[in-house]
Design brief:
globular; mainly alpha; periplasm; Acid_Pase_classA_bac; Acid phosphatase; acid phosphatase activity; single chain; 2 strands; 13 helices; two-stranded antiparallel sheet; signal
Length: 279
């Protein structure tokens, strides 16, 4: 039999084998973490690369402990801000959906962010949001810590979200993890504005205290998990490409005279108001 005849008989079997091997590889490869059913965006990190919050954070402070006494003290101070401009800012800070969420740090970086003019930065913020949120999920599910409004019976800044928040553990804070991750990433991209960006990362998390949806210890461990997520992102090629592209976008936007459209002086003044005992 000729070599051509042998090949002709072998090729169909080879094709099937390659197809099955490809399916097996696809099935075993972990995929990037999805945000939720309402968005097509996925995080940069696959499931195996998401920081292990259950192993990394301690149990939340127990009732009667010094840690919980501080949680309660900060919560009382934060709730006293209801009805003030700081409460209104906390309500605004609760929005993490995109496109609105992309501009939570607009004043800190001195620039508006949108999918048309700064697509790489927009993409980086949206995808890292998913990773930083995923970094808190295991501990949230395990501890199922009741949120402050469930304990003190007082309203939150987002009453429409309360039903969902009751089913989602308080510890650690997902919003804070996201805000702190954004602060660290944006400080890399716009280093000359790093102080303003880091300050925004802190007060972004503190807005969750003012909203009456998180305890002080939730905020502290949320920052910790946000930093852990950023550390994992540094080794991700897709993230590094977007980081470089975002840096170039901001440089170009500055050269063209673009700036934040918000009243940043007013926002800065409001954000200086904080619970006195918050860490």
């Amino acid at each position: 039999m000729s070599l051509i005849s042998h090949l002709g008989r072998a090729l169909p079997g080879l094709a099937v084998a390659l197809s099955l091997a490809g399916c097996a590889a696809t099935a075993s490869r972990p995929t990037a973490v999805e945000a939720n059913v309402t968005t097509k965006a996925v995080g940069y990190l696959d499931a195996a690369s998401v920081p292990a919050s259950l192993a990394l954070v301690p149990a939340p402070p127990a009732a009667g402990s010094a840690g919980f006494a501080l949680d309660e003290q900060v919560s009382r101070q934060a709730r006293a801000l209801r009805g003030t401009p700081r409460f209104a800012q906390a309500t605004h800070d609760a929005e993490l959906g995109f496109p609105e969420g992309a501009n939570q740090f607009s004043c800190a970086i001195g620039l508006d962010v949108d999918a048309q003019r700064t697509p790489a930065l927009y993409r980086l913020l949206e995808r890292s949001r998913i990773d930083a949120s995923a970094a808190t999920r295991a501990a949230k599910k395990h501890h199922q810590r009741p949120r402050p409004f469930m304990v003190n019976g007082e309203p939150t800044c987002t009453p429409q979200d309360e039903a969902g928040l009751r089913r989602n553990g308080s510890y650690p804070s997902g919003h804070t993890s996201i805000g702190w991750a954004w602060a660290l990433l944006l400080s890399e991209i716009v280093p000359d504005r790093a102080d303003a960006i880091i300050a925004r990362g802190r007060n972004y998390g503190e807005s969750r205290l003012v909203c009456n949806v998180h305890w002080q210890s939730d905020i502290l461990e949320g920052r910790f998990m946000g930093a852990a997520a950023v550390a994992r992102l540094q080794d991700n090629p897709a993230f590094q490409r977007d980081l470089l592209a975002a840096r170039r976008e901001i440089e170009a936007a500055r050269r063209s005279g673009q700036h934040s459209s918000r009243d940043c002086a007013a926002e800065e003044a409001v954000l200086k108001v904080r619970p006195a005992s918050a860490l």
